[in-house]
Amino acid sequence: MNCDDVRRDDIPERYVAGKLPEGERDGYEAHYFECETCFAGLEAIRAVQSDLRGNESAIRALPAPRKVIVMRFAVPLALAAAILLAAVLYRAQNQAVPAVPVAVSPKPVDYTLLAKLEPPAYEPALRRGSADKAALRFVQAMENYRRRDYAQTIAGLHASLALDSGAAAPRFFLGACELLTGDWDQGTRDLEMVVASGSGPFLEEGLMLLAKASLHRNDPATARRELEQLVASKGDLAPAAGELLRQLDDLSSGQGK
Ligand SMILES: [Zn+2]
Question: How many domains does the chain have?
Fold first, then answer.
């Protein structure tokens, strides 16, 4: 593919819309990787597109269907088991210690309210012409991320990580996409790998996402540790972490009301 092909066949428009057949897509990606002019043209089209998308809701929530089905049966069963167990325990307790009133436990706090996610911003920062295969795969995968097709992004990021498992950017966005598609456990594991490296451009954002995942698990103690680490870092996300900590405290102090 050359510059003339790109212009004649409206390749960038079709590419951004996700409507290029695979062969043409690969050819175009290989070309704009090397061609400054076509890359600039692509960026211009993306800029227009992201303006149009500005008002779209930030997250397309994707509930995992299988989980929903399992939950439908699991909850009543678990509930029935819990009620049965409570009845048995209550009877046992009343027989053993008749005079002690049963302590009323405070209403549990729902920290998942604070677990709202925004997809992390992605700006391609690849040096033109110096791309290796893993980096090219990463850029390809992130085309799906721009379209908010997180499942496709995950598949592409796995392909990139298969070529370079230690790369921070694909690991970070893999974790983010997993959280965004409801796979909080796997997302947490991948983001922990990013944060465990202890430095790099994704450390702070990784910590923030981990804190959200902890809140989603209703684990405020871990979330608090992660947010306090962010505040202590005095980085770009320190103010946001401080604000989230304050909301966490508000929720905690409202306990039992
Ligand atoms: Zn070109």
Answer: 3
Q: Looking at the structure, do residues 203 and 167 belong to the same domain, yes or no?
A: yes
47 C-alpha vs ligand 1 centroid, how far in Å?
Answer: 18
pLDDT per residue as tens digits for the range 50-79? 766 654 544 344 444 444 444 455 556 666
Same domain flag for 19 and 71: no
**Taking all residues of the chain, what is their mean pLDDT, rounded to a whole number?**
81
Give residue 7 CA to ligand 1 midpoint distance, Å.
9
Residue 60 lies in a domain: no
Report yes or no on whether pTM surpasses 0.90.
no
- Distance (Å) from CA 34 to ligand 1 centroid: 8
Name the burial class of residue 42, with classes exposed (0-12), middle (13-18) and buried (19+) by CB atoms within 10 angstroms of its CB. Answer: buried
Residue 58 lies in a domain: no
Residue type, 102: V
Residue range 25-39, pLDDT digits in tens: 989 988 888 888 888
> Does 125 map to a domain?
no
Q: How far is the centre of ligand 1, averaged over its atoms, from the C-alpha of 35 (Å)? A: 5
Cα(42) to centroid(ligand 1), Å:
10
Read off the tokens for 88.
């048995």
Percent of the residues in the chain that have a pLDDT greater than 70, as a whole number: 74
Please give the residue range of the domain that contains residue 197. 112-119+130-253
Distance CA 164, CA 66 (A): 31
Same domain for 158 and 87: no
Helix/strand/coil percent split, the chain, to 5: 70, 0, 30
The band of 256, judged by pLDDT with boundaries at 50, 70 and 90, is: very low
